[in-house]
Amino acid sequence: MLTLTDNAATIVKDLAGRSTGSTEGGLRIATLENDTSNFEVTMAPTAELYDQVVENNGAHVFLEKNAADSLADKQLDANRDDDGAVRFSISPRV
Questions:
Q1: Matching InterPro entries, A to Z (predicted)?
Q2: How many CB atoms lie within 10 A of CB 68?
Q3: CATH (residue range 3-92)
Q4: Minimal CA–CA distance to 11: which of 90, 91, 85, 73?
Q5: pLDDT band at 21 (very low <50, low <70, confident <90, very high)
């Protein structure tokens, strides 16, 4: 199952609170319809039916089935640059 770094959890929780206005919202990762090697990342108020839910320190990540399969052995990290823009990265889980 995908894991989150502490940085990712903090940033996802902050983004979800701002965009959904709820502590139940989170980051949703889905594969593109005809390309399962690329991902679409959006903020969502709740998980969709059949999404796998990853939780860490109050942060929620909702994974569409194909994304969950592709990211099962990965770790999600996130950082903010000097302008406040968020950059997500995925790496092999250590």
A1: HesB-like_dom_sf
A2: 21
A3: 2.60.300.12
A4: 85
A5: confident
What is the residue type of 50?
Y
Q: For the stretch 17-51, what's the b/e string if a residue is b when 16 or more beta carbons lie within 10 angstroms of its beta carbon?
A: eeebeeeebbbbbbbeeeeeeebeeebbeebeeeb
Per-residue three-class SS string for the chain: CCEECHHHHHHHHHHHHHHHCCCCCEEEEEEECCEEEEEEEEEECCCCCCCEEEEECCEEEEECHHHHHHCCCEEEEEEECCCCCEEEEEEECC
pLDDT band at residue 43, thresholds of 50, 70 and 90?
very high
Map out the domains of the chain as residue ranges.
3-92
Q: Which two tokens stand for residue 51?
A: 């999404």
Whether the predicted pLDDT of 36 surpasses 90:
no
